[in-house]
């Protein structure tokens, strides 16, 4: 059996708590002979900054390049509110995304039937919801230069961020969206602000061209980002795949995740290009939720998004479909059995902590 | 009685239909001797482009500068999808905002009790909702330079947008937010992405400074824009005033508006600075909804947001508090009487069209 090189980067806040539960699942898969892993672990974010003054060390970056897949917990927190911008916790995550060229961020927002009542939305609007947001992750305003704060006269300052997109960046993320739509309901909504932004004009044009030349079988609609935000709230089930840029994707995917009522349940994948020779693609898997410093260290965080991120890695990076199915079935199973962490708890359900939920998943496996 | 110079710019799509209903209300106020108006009217958006090749003519701009207040319907539509970027319909609205320096966009998102069931959200999450989004409107990525599309080699293109903020722009919008909070629940949430954007770093810093020096009595919280989007869906009633930049404000205010279930009901005000000598401030009032080309020309659009925009103008530009109260009471009255346009209709209510709703408001007055 192939040994899969997996790098664990728990990060900050609840990151290490939810990662501890994933390790149980990894141990179980190993013990059952269902998969064989070579595990590395390192620091990222504030934890790395505290240890070496950088939000990710060169050693950790080397491990990231050597890994077949990376599991990341979360980064950031008020503790590092005043560290210099260049070495803030988030810079570690952003460097991983950029240096590994993980340009395609897949954020499924699905509503677990057992949790439909946890949504803010009326049940019929979210029951069965299954939207996939495909977010461009290595371009746009996150990385464009100049990105500066300058002192002017009189104590005034000027801050600048630059949103840059080149055609090839839009084309490759559009292709990912169209390919994924073909495995789903065959519909893509492309989202930008072409009425205000030149990057939006180019985005719309390139997505239309890619569609016209290679994906005419997929239904394509263009929506302005503000309208898309509205439509997500009004009638989320109209969507299948949404493709959008780094910044709009950040906000819209968080809104979509919150709609499901299952924020602590949602994994994500950040994928690079398929390499010509090896056929491999670099990949990082992480929960959609953040470091949640307000509940960190209390053992109450929901580990399911993190465990689901492992399942995505099994499926997309290692081709271990059976193992992935099994982990996902176990997650569905514990929910059906009524196990709930605080974020999704409701009357009559069995309240468990982080470790309790992890143990329940193992028991279900 | 003072005569108020009011410029009407119906614009595109449903703009002229909803503006027709406002004219009835203006006529009624005039006839009752409650207010005296000198009305001008002109074209903006696609309608102006069709007539003169520009999304707003120099004559219309001159009228805008001469007016005490402007009422605008909406701009844009698929008809103008292929006109040159510089003269697209939206450029007319953006020029008005920029040239008149209407830097403060006030977008109240309130849930009319009679309409709480029209929301996607569960009733208890939105009943009594009253959030005010204060959006910066003359800066940021909307207006920053460079804003270009360049041809590279091999048919590749590069698009650039630039987000620029100077301290004074952030300071003045923060002051508006704090002042308004004092007339409300005294709480401000400031929203940016300081973990990714330098404009976010400066935004957070300036808002904190203004708060620390002059508004310590107001509660200030900072939220990242993605978290704010989430929180709006999760528990919108936690918010009183949200202050944010032009682009985040565009998306978050649309999400907030949709939460109320009353999109067709929500007016907005875009205000300039108070002028030193006259004590006046330039102002433009418009519905939060757009041109809705899909229902334009059918006489079914909801005119209440447009009529509510007039009420805001009466209140904030003309100091006609009594008249403003009366118009707003009439709106509440027709809702209580069960009149509903299609967007807010539900079983058992009286379905009316655009003109029917306008007439009902007049009857209620
Ligand atoms: C932590 C932060 C830099 C990050 C982002 O803005 O991309 C996060 O919000 C996300 O969505 O993964
Ligand atoms: C029409 C468009 C240019 C405008 C904007 O993006 O500001 C609209 O969406 C709004 O929010 O007023």
From TrEMBL, chains A, B:
Entry annotated with the keyword Cell cycle: no
Binding site for NAD(+): 77-90
UniProt xrefs under SUPFAM superfamilies: Isocitrate/Isopropylmalate dehydrogenase-like
Assigned keywords, A-Z: Amino-acid biosynthesis, Branched-chain amino acid biosynthesis, Cytoplasm, Leucine biosynthesis, Magnesium, Manganese, Metal-binding, NAD, Oxidoreductase
Superkingdom field: Bacteria
Record site: Important for catalysis: 142, 193
Locations listed in the record: Cytoplasm
Isopropylmalate dehydrogenase-like domain ranges (all copies): 5-361
Binding site for Mg(2+): 226, 250, 254
Binding of substrate, residues: 97, 107, 135, 226
Pathway: Amino-acid biosynthesis; L-leucine biosynthesis; L-leucine from 3-methyl-2-oxobutanoate: step 3/4
Names of the cofactor(s): Mg(2+); Mn(2+)
Catalytic activity: (2R,3S)-3-isopropylmalate + NAD(+) = 4-methyl-2-oxopentanoate + CO2 + NADH
Broad class of the protein's primary localization: cytoplasm
The enzyme's E.C. designation: 1.1.1.85
SMART domains xref list: Iso_dh
Cofactor binding note: Binds 1 Mg(2+) or Mn(2+) ion per subunit.
Function, in words: Catalyzes the oxidation of 3-carboxy-2-hydroxy-4-methylpentanoate (3-isopropylmalate) to 3-carboxy-4-methyl-2-oxopentanoate. The product decarboxylates to 4-methyl-2 oxopentanoate.
Sequence similarity: Belongs to the isocitrate and isopropylmalate dehydrogenases family. LeuB type 1 subfamily.
Record-linked HAMAP family: LeuB_type1
Name this polypeptide is given: 3-isopropylmalate dehydrogenase
């Amino acid at each position: 059996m192939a040994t899969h090189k997996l790098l664990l980067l728990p990060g900050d806040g609840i990151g290490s708590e939810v990662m501890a539960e994933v390790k149980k699942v990894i141990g179980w898969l190993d013990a059952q002979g269902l998969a064989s892993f070579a595990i590395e672990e390192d620091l990222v974010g504030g934890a790395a900054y505290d240890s070496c003054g950088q939000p990710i060390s060169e050693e950790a970056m080397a491990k990231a390049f050597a890994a077949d897949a990376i599991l990341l917990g979360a980064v950031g927190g008020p503790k590092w509110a005043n560290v210099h911008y260049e070495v803030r916790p988030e810079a570690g995550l952003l460097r991983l995304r950029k240096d590994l060229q993980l340009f395609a961020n897949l954020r499924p927002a699905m509503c677990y039937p057992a949790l439909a009542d946890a949504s803010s939305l009326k049940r019929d609007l979210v029951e069965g919801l299954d939207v996939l947001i495909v977010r461009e992750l290595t371009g746009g305003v996150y990385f464009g230069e100049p990105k500066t704060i300058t002192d002017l006269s009189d104590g005034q300052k000027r801050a600048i961020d630059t949103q840059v997109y080149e055609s090839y960046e839009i084309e490759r993320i559009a292709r990912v969206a169209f390919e994924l739509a073909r495995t789903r309901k065959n519909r893509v909504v492309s989202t930008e602000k072409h009425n205000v932004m030149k990057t939006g004009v180019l985005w719309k044009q390139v997505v239309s061209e890619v569609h016209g030349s290679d994906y005419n079988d997929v239904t394509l609609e263009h929506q302005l980002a503000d309208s898309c935000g509205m439509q997500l709230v009004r009638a989320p089930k109209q969507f299948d795949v949404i493709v959008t840029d780094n910044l709009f994707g950040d906000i819209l995917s968080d809104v979509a995740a919150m709609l499901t009522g299952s924020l602590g349940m949602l994994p994500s994948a950040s994928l690079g290009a398929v390499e010509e020779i090896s056929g491999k693609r670099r990949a990082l898997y992480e929960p959609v939720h953040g470091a949640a410093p307000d509940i960190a260290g209390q053992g109450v965080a929901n580990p399911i998004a993190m465990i689901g991120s492992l399942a995505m890695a099994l499926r997309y990076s290692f081709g271990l479909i059976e193992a992935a199915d099994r982990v996902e079935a176990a997650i569905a199973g514990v929910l059906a059995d009524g196990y709930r962490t605080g974020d999704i708890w409701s009357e009559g359900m069995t309240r468990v902590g982080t470790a309790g939920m992890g143990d329940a998943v193992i028991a279900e496996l």
